[in-house]
Specification:
This protein is an alpha/beta fold and 391 residues long. Helix content is 43%, strand content 15%. Bound molecules: nicotinamide-adenine-dinucleotide and magnesium ion.
């Protein structure tokens, strides 16, 4: 293995949950990792404080109003160049000096900057799952062309990536993704329609952004992760399995054709997966203590009940149908979660909206990123227009 050369890091979404965990890894490994670009949407003060602490040369604020105000108020340190506007994310993800881009923004806004960085052959720490779901084939093709290394950062895919090292797909029987089951895993099914946004944004194990926390409860998150696994590891849906594991310490398994099953285990914190990507292929001391087998632990596993998790069932159907279904599933879910969080629909309207949007799929397949973005936009309109009968 080559000696580790210091890497220049850019974080898209530095103020979010992935961003904050990435900063913890950077603090621990200052001599190995240097932060040269950061972005946020509207948390300008938090972003300015990050620039101050890490002496970051480039920052971008994607919300136009916030950018103008921050510029006017001179909020950022003088050594930081502040960028704004719709291309600001592309500008910082394509900085010539950048070695690795951490994609920690939420939603489809990461697609263009990701593609631009991949085309330049940069390493990508892929946390943002929506962009792989939306533009999986384009991202994988672009990475093949440029030789850009895609490092799966979502904990399940990072676990699988680690277990697969040295093996090809012909050795693999199936991938088994673990799922916590979210905060309503024991709530009686008939009570699910009356859960509130406040209930749905509290995760029992992980501390994450609001959208992904709701997605964990509905298991739309695991649905998106099945899509991610399909693109990253090039396996058909029948070889992708989901198992409930409430403790969230086993992050996923690979079952090989000889019956051996490998897994990867850490406490439920994203710093482990993020550090693995940032220092890859090297290893170094972790930010937090890992599992201690001197303490007794109990780990449980069971198959998920698809009646409790209709979003998971719809994800398998979408994966089997292929074409635009994954993009439709993703866009419909994003809008449904937004609508649930502002109280305009009930919890169980989330799968209803996804199902309704999927039923409008004309079974075609977008052949360009632009066409995919149109499918995404059209689905968002449909999902916004959906009239919920339950509220
Ligand atoms: P978050 O809501 O905590 O943070 C999102 C970040 O994106 C913030 O920095 C915000 O400023 C930025 N952002 C929001 N809207 C934006 C817009 N329109 N344009 C540009 N930037 C915008 O989210 P998170 O939990 O950190 O998740 C980020 C991504 O990582 C998601 O795709 C999520 O599915 C994935 N992920 C998160 C975790 C986790 O533990 N949080 C684990 C695995 C995967
Ligand atoms: Mg995950």
């Amino acid at each position: 293995m080559k000696k580790f050369a210091r890497k220049n890091v850019v974080i898209l979404g530095a103020t979010g949950s992935i961003g904050t965990n990435t900063l913890r890894v950077l603090r621990k490994h200052k001599s190995k990792l240097k932060l040269i670009g950061v972005s946020a949407h509207s948390k300008d003060r938090m972003l300015a404080a990050i620039c101050q602490e890490f002496k970051v040369p480039y920052a971008s604020l994607t919300d136009a109003k916030t950018y103008k105000r921050a510029k006017l108020e001179g909020l950022f340190p003088s050594e930081t160049q502040l960028l704004g506007g719709s291309d600001a994310l592309v500008e910082i993800s394509t900085l010539v000096a950048a070695d690795i881009i951490v994609l920690g923004v939420v939603g489809a806004c990461g697609l263009k900057p990701a593609l631009a960085a991949i085309e330049m052959g940069k390493e990508i720490a892929l946390a943002n799952k929506e962009l792989l779901v939306l533009g999986g084939s384009f991202i994988i093709d672009a990475a093949k062309r440029s030789g850009s290394l895609l490092l799966p950062t979502d904990s399940e895919h990072n676990a699988i990536f680690q277990c697969l090292e040295g093996h090809s797909n012909k050795d693999v029987e199936k991938l088994i993704l673990t799922a916590s089951g979210g905060q309503f895993r024991d709530t009686p099914i008939q009570k699910l329609d009356s859960v509130t946004p406040a209930d749905a944004t509290k995760h029992p194990n992980w501390s994450m952004g609001q959208k992904i926390t709701v997605d964990s409860a509905t298991m739309a998150n695991k649905g998106l992760e099945l899509f991610e696994a399909h693109w990253l590891f090039n396996l058909e849906p029948s070889r992708l399995e989901v198992v409930l594991h409430p403790q969230s310490v086993a992050h996923s398994f690979v079952q090989f054709i000889d019956g051996s099953i490998l897994g990867q285990f850490t406490p439920p914190s994203m710093t482990f997966a993020i550090q693995h990507c940032l220092l890859y292929p090297h290893r170094s001391a972790s930010v937090e203590p890992t599992l201690d087998f001197k303490q007794s632990m109990q780990w449980n596993f069971k198959a998920p009940d698809l009646a409790r998790y209709p979003c998971l069932k719809l994800a398998y159907e979408s994966l089997n149908n292929g074409g635009n279904a994954l993009a439709i599933y993703n866009a419909a879910n994003e809008i449904a979660v937004e609508r649930f969080l502002i109280g305009s629909i009930n919890y169980l309207d989330i799968p209803r909206i996804i199902e309704w949007c999927l039923s409008n799929d004309n079974n075609s397949e977008a052949t360009s990123v632009e066409a995919l973005i149109q499918v995404d936009a059209y689905t968002r309109k449909l999902a916004t227009a959906y009239k919920a009968h339950s509220v």
